[in-house]
Write a structure and sequence with these properties.
Elements: H1 12-17, E1 34-37, E2 42-48, H2 59-66, E3 89-96, E4 99-106, H3 113-133, E5 136-143, E6 146-154, H4 157-165, H5 175-191, E7 195-202, H6 216-233, E8 237-241, H7 248-256, E9 260-263, H8 269-281
Parallel strand pairs: 4-5, 4-7, 7-8, 8-9
Antiparallel strand pairs: 1-3, 2-3, 5-6
Helix pairs in contact: 3-4, 3-8, 5-6
Length: 284
Protein backbone atom coordinates (compact mmCIF):
# COMPACT_ATOMS: atom_id res chain seq x y z
CA UNK A 1 0.00 0.00 0.00
CA UNK A 2 2.93 2.34 0.50
CA UNK A 3 4.20 4.14 -2.61
CA UNK A 4 6.61 6.97 -3.34
CA UNK A 5 5.60 10.28 -1.73
CA UNK A 6 4.18 12.83 -4.16
CA UNK A 7 6.13 16.11 -4.21
CA UNK A 8 3.32 18.24 -2.81
CA UNK A 9 3.11 20.74 0.05
CA UNK A 10 1.95 19.12 3.26
CA UNK A 11 -1.01 21.48 3.60
CA UNK A 12 -2.28 21.37 0.01
CA UNK A 13 -5.38 19.36 0.87
CA UNK A 14 -6.11 21.63 3.80
CA UNK A 15 -6.05 24.73 1.61
CA UNK A 16 -8.26 23.10 -1.00
CA UNK A 17 -10.93 21.77 1.30
CA UNK A 18 -11.21 24.47 3.95
CA UNK A 19 -12.42 27.00 1.40
CA UNK A 20 -16.09 27.93 1.29
CA UNK A 21 -18.50 26.20 -1.06
CA UNK A 22 -18.73 27.54 -4.61
CA UNK A 23 -22.42 28.36 -4.35
CA UNK A 24 -22.87 31.19 -1.87
CA UNK A 25 -26.38 30.00 -1.08
CA UNK A 26 -25.28 26.56 0.08
CA UNK A 27 -21.80 26.92 1.48
CA UNK A 28 -20.35 24.12 3.55
CA UNK A 29 -18.68 24.90 6.83
CA UNK A 30 -15.16 24.04 7.91
CA UNK A 31 -15.92 20.99 9.98
CA UNK A 32 -19.66 21.01 9.55
CA UNK A 33 -22.08 23.69 8.53
CA UNK A 34 -22.46 26.49 11.08
CA UNK A 35 -26.00 27.21 12.18
CA UNK A 36 -27.65 29.41 14.75
CA UNK A 37 -28.84 27.79 17.96
CA UNK A 38 -30.73 29.04 20.96
CA UNK A 39 -30.09 26.32 23.54
CA UNK A 40 -26.57 25.00 23.21
CA UNK A 41 -23.32 25.38 21.33
CA UNK A 42 -20.58 27.98 21.35
CA UNK A 43 -21.87 31.16 23.04
CA UNK A 44 -22.27 34.18 20.78
CA UNK A 45 -23.07 37.78 21.73
CA UNK A 46 -26.72 38.08 22.82
CA UNK A 47 -29.19 39.58 20.40
CA UNK A 48 -32.23 41.81 20.95
CA UNK A 49 -35.48 39.92 20.97
CA UNK A 50 -38.27 38.67 23.22
CA UNK A 51 -37.81 35.46 25.22
CA UNK A 52 -40.14 32.61 24.56
CA UNK A 53 -40.19 29.16 23.08
CA UNK A 54 -36.57 27.98 23.06
CA UNK A 55 -35.15 31.50 23.37
CA UNK A 56 -33.92 32.20 26.90
CA UNK A 57 -33.66 35.68 28.39
CA UNK A 58 -30.13 37.02 28.77
CA UNK A 59 -30.53 38.86 32.08
CA UNK A 60 -27.24 40.76 32.10
CA UNK A 61 -27.59 42.03 28.52
CA UNK A 62 -31.19 43.05 29.22
CA UNK A 63 -30.17 45.04 32.30
CA UNK A 64 -27.35 46.71 30.39
CA UNK A 65 -29.79 47.79 27.70
CA UNK A 66 -32.25 49.16 30.26
CA UNK A 67 -29.74 50.96 32.54
CA UNK A 68 -29.09 54.10 30.44
CA UNK A 69 -32.83 54.74 30.08
CA UNK A 70 -33.78 54.79 33.78
CA UNK A 71 -33.86 58.59 34.10
CA UNK A 72 -36.27 58.78 31.19
CA UNK A 73 -38.53 56.28 32.89
CA UNK A 74 -39.36 58.50 35.83
CA UNK A 75 -42.45 56.53 36.71
CA UNK A 76 -40.45 53.61 37.94
CA UNK A 77 -40.60 52.80 41.65
CA UNK A 78 -37.50 53.77 43.66
CA UNK A 79 -35.00 50.93 43.93
CA UNK A 80 -36.41 49.08 40.96
CA UNK A 81 -35.18 48.89 37.39
CA UNK A 82 -37.77 49.74 34.78
CA UNK A 83 -37.51 47.23 31.94
CA UNK A 84 -39.44 47.46 28.71
CA UNK A 85 -39.86 44.98 25.90
CA UNK A 86 -37.35 46.92 23.82
CA UNK A 87 -34.64 46.03 26.37
CA UNK A 88 -35.01 42.28 26.07
CA UNK A 89 -31.99 40.31 24.88
CA UNK A 90 -31.81 36.54 24.46
CA UNK A 91 -29.03 33.99 24.51
CA UNK A 92 -27.49 33.00 21.20
CA UNK A 93 -25.24 30.07 20.35
CA UNK A 94 -23.50 28.68 17.32
CA UNK A 95 -23.77 25.01 16.56
CA UNK A 96 -22.00 22.95 13.93
CA UNK A 97 -23.82 20.17 12.20
CA UNK A 98 -22.27 16.76 11.81
CA UNK A 99 -20.28 16.20 8.65
CA UNK A 100 -19.83 13.21 6.37
CA UNK A 101 -16.99 12.64 3.94
CA UNK A 102 -18.20 10.86 0.79
CA UNK A 103 -15.46 8.90 -0.93
CA UNK A 104 -16.13 8.05 -4.58
CA UNK A 105 -13.59 5.31 -5.33
CA UNK A 106 -12.68 4.23 -8.82
CA UNK A 107 -12.37 0.43 -8.74
CA UNK A 108 -12.47 -0.04 -12.52
CA UNK A 109 -9.86 -1.73 -14.64
CA UNK A 110 -8.18 1.60 -15.46
CA UNK A 111 -7.41 2.17 -11.76
CA UNK A 112 -4.03 0.67 -10.99
CA UNK A 113 -4.18 -1.96 -8.26
CA UNK A 114 -1.62 -0.20 -6.07
CA UNK A 115 -3.65 3.04 -6.16
CA UNK A 116 -6.85 1.25 -5.28
CA UNK A 117 -5.01 -0.20 -2.28
CA UNK A 118 -3.86 3.31 -1.31
CA UNK A 119 -7.42 4.58 -1.45
CA UNK A 120 -8.61 1.73 0.74
CA UNK A 121 -5.87 2.46 3.26
CA UNK A 122 -6.66 6.18 3.29
CA UNK A 123 -10.35 5.56 3.99
CA UNK A 124 -9.58 3.15 6.82
CA UNK A 125 -7.14 5.53 8.47
CA UNK A 126 -9.51 8.47 8.06
CA UNK A 127 -12.33 6.52 9.66
CA UNK A 128 -10.12 5.77 12.67
CA UNK A 129 -9.49 9.47 13.17
CA UNK A 130 -13.10 10.42 12.49
CA UNK A 131 -14.46 7.90 14.98
CA UNK A 132 -13.06 9.88 17.92
CA UNK A 133 -14.74 13.06 16.66
CA UNK A 134 -18.03 11.31 15.81
CA UNK A 135 -17.74 12.31 12.17
CA UNK A 136 -18.94 9.93 9.48
CA UNK A 137 -17.71 8.40 6.23
CA UNK A 138 -19.70 7.19 3.23
CA UNK A 139 -18.13 5.12 0.45
CA UNK A 140 -19.33 5.00 -3.15
CA UNK A 141 -17.47 2.49 -5.32
CA UNK A 142 -17.80 2.33 -9.09
CA UNK A 143 -16.81 -0.33 -11.55
CA UNK A 144 -18.48 -2.37 -14.27
CA UNK A 145 -21.87 -1.00 -15.36
CA UNK A 146 -22.79 1.21 -12.38
CA UNK A 147 -21.81 2.68 -9.05
CA UNK A 148 -22.79 1.10 -5.74
CA UNK A 149 -23.16 2.44 -2.24
CA UNK A 150 -20.44 0.33 -0.73
CA UNK A 151 -20.88 1.79 2.74
CA UNK A 152 -23.74 4.04 3.92
CA UNK A 153 -22.95 6.82 6.37
CA UNK A 154 -21.22 5.20 9.32
CA UNK A 155 -18.68 5.67 12.06
CA UNK A 156 -18.09 1.94 12.43
CA UNK A 157 -14.48 1.01 11.79
CA UNK A 158 -15.35 -2.68 11.61
CA UNK A 159 -17.97 -2.16 8.90
CA UNK A 160 -15.60 0.02 6.89
CA UNK A 161 -12.81 -2.52 6.98
CA UNK A 162 -15.13 -5.30 5.92
CA UNK A 163 -16.50 -3.26 3.04
CA UNK A 164 -13.07 -2.19 1.84
CA UNK A 165 -11.64 -5.68 2.08
CA UNK A 166 -14.39 -7.06 -0.14
CA UNK A 167 -14.06 -4.39 -2.84
CA UNK A 168 -12.83 -5.99 -6.09
CA UNK A 169 -11.28 -4.17 -9.03
CA UNK A 170 -11.72 -4.34 -12.79
CA UNK A 171 -14.36 -3.62 -15.41
CA UNK A 172 -15.63 -0.39 -16.95
CA UNK A 173 -15.64 3.10 -15.45
CA UNK A 174 -19.22 4.32 -14.74
CA UNK A 175 -18.07 7.72 -13.47
CA UNK A 176 -21.38 9.45 -14.21
CA UNK A 177 -23.23 6.87 -12.14
CA UNK A 178 -20.83 7.49 -9.25
CA UNK A 179 -21.41 11.24 -9.35
CA UNK A 180 -25.17 10.76 -9.62
CA UNK A 181 -25.13 8.52 -6.55
CA UNK A 182 -22.88 10.97 -4.69
CA UNK A 183 -25.29 13.83 -5.39
CA UNK A 184 -28.17 11.68 -4.14
CA UNK A 185 -26.30 10.81 -0.95
CA UNK A 186 -25.33 14.44 -0.37
CA UNK A 187 -28.96 15.51 -0.73
CA UNK A 188 -30.09 12.94 1.82
CA UNK A 189 -27.31 13.94 4.23
CA UNK A 190 -28.22 17.60 3.97
CA UNK A 191 -31.86 16.82 4.76
CA UNK A 192 -30.63 15.08 7.90
CA UNK A 193 -28.66 18.17 8.92
CA UNK A 194 -25.31 16.63 7.95
CA UNK A 195 -22.75 18.57 5.91
CA UNK A 196 -21.55 16.50 2.93
CA UNK A 197 -18.03 16.68 1.50
CA UNK A 198 -16.99 14.73 -1.58
CA UNK A 199 -13.59 13.30 -2.49
CA UNK A 200 -13.33 11.62 -5.88
CA UNK A 201 -10.38 9.30 -6.42
CA UNK A 202 -10.28 8.48 -10.13
CA UNK A 203 -8.33 8.86 -13.34
CA UNK A 204 -11.48 10.25 -15.00
CA UNK A 205 -11.54 7.79 -17.90
CA UNK A 206 -15.30 7.38 -18.05
CA UNK A 207 -16.43 4.77 -20.58
CA UNK A 208 -19.87 3.69 -19.28
CA UNK A 209 -22.90 5.98 -19.52
CA UNK A 210 -25.80 6.26 -17.08
CA UNK A 211 -27.71 3.54 -18.91
CA UNK A 212 -24.85 1.10 -18.33
CA UNK A 213 -23.78 1.06 -21.98
CA UNK A 214 -20.19 1.35 -23.14
CA UNK A 215 -19.01 4.37 -25.12
CA UNK A 216 -16.69 7.17 -24.10
CA UNK A 217 -18.55 10.01 -25.81
CA UNK A 218 -21.91 9.60 -24.06
CA UNK A 219 -20.20 8.58 -20.82
CA UNK A 220 -18.27 11.86 -20.81
CA UNK A 221 -21.42 13.90 -21.51
CA UNK A 222 -23.26 12.20 -18.64
CA UNK A 223 -20.29 12.79 -16.36
CA UNK A 224 -20.17 16.49 -17.22
CA UNK A 225 -23.90 16.78 -16.51
CA UNK A 226 -23.52 15.43 -12.98
CA UNK A 227 -20.40 17.47 -12.39
CA UNK A 228 -22.49 20.55 -13.11
CA UNK A 229 -25.23 19.27 -10.78
CA UNK A 230 -22.78 18.89 -7.91
CA UNK A 231 -21.54 22.42 -8.49
CA UNK A 232 -25.09 23.76 -8.36
CA UNK A 233 -25.54 22.16 -4.93
CA UNK A 234 -22.58 24.21 -3.70
CA UNK A 235 -20.93 21.58 -1.49
CA UNK A 236 -17.16 21.39 -1.23
CA UNK A 237 -15.34 18.69 -3.11
CA UNK A 238 -11.91 17.53 -4.16
CA UNK A 239 -10.80 15.44 -7.12
CA UNK A 240 -7.66 13.39 -6.57
CA UNK A 241 -6.35 12.48 -10.02
CA UNK A 242 -4.93 8.96 -9.82
CA UNK A 243 -3.62 9.00 -13.39
CA UNK A 244 0.04 8.21 -13.94
CA UNK A 245 0.48 11.85 -15.02
CA UNK A 246 -1.74 14.90 -14.41
CA UNK A 247 -4.57 14.71 -16.93
CA UNK A 248 -6.15 17.78 -18.56
CA UNK A 249 -9.52 16.05 -18.92
CA UNK A 250 -9.66 15.25 -15.21
CA UNK A 251 -8.77 18.84 -14.41
CA UNK A 252 -11.61 19.97 -16.66
CA UNK A 253 -14.09 17.68 -14.88
CA UNK A 254 -12.92 18.95 -11.50
CA UNK A 255 -13.45 22.53 -12.65
CA UNK A 256 -16.91 21.63 -13.96
CA UNK A 257 -17.99 20.42 -10.52
CA UNK A 258 -16.31 23.30 -8.68
CA UNK A 259 -13.88 20.92 -7.02
CA UNK A 260 -10.31 21.35 -5.99
CA UNK A 261 -7.93 19.38 -8.20
CA UNK A 262 -4.99 17.39 -6.95
CA UNK A 263 -2.80 15.28 -9.24
CA UNK A 264 -1.49 12.64 -6.91
CA UNK A 265 0.14 9.77 -8.76
CA UNK A 266 1.64 7.20 -6.43
CA UNK A 267 0.14 8.93 -3.44
CA UNK A 268 0.80 7.41 -0.05
CA UNK A 269 -2.27 6.30 1.89
CA UNK A 270 -0.93 7.67 5.19
CA UNK A 271 -0.28 11.07 3.65
CA UNK A 272 -3.79 11.36 2.18
CA UNK A 273 -5.37 10.30 5.47
CA UNK A 274 -3.25 12.74 7.47
CA UNK A 275 -4.29 15.68 5.31
CA UNK A 276 -7.93 14.62 5.43
CA UNK A 277 -7.69 14.36 9.19
CA UNK A 278 -6.56 17.99 9.30
CA UNK A 279 -9.57 18.88 7.18
CA UNK A 280 -12.00 17.19 9.55
CA UNK A 281 -10.51 19.15 12.47
CA UNK A 282 -11.05 22.34 10.47
CA UNK A 283 -7.38 23.34 10.40
CA UNK A 284 -6.67 26.01 7.78
Amino acid sequence: MAAALASLPNDVLDRLLTQAGRNQGHTSGRSGQAKAGVQRGRPLPPRPGPPGGHARLHVLATLRAAAPKQRLRAGAQPGRVAIRAEDFHVHRYQQRSASCLIFALDASGSAALNRLAEAKGAVERLLQASYARRDSVCIVAFRGARADLLLPMTRSLVRAKRAMTGLPGGGGTPLASALQLSVSQATQLQRQGVTPLLVVLSDGRANVDLAGRGGRSQALLDTQTWCAQWRLNGHRSLWIDTSAQPDAQVRSLADAMGAGYLPMPQAQAERIASAMDNLRRGDA
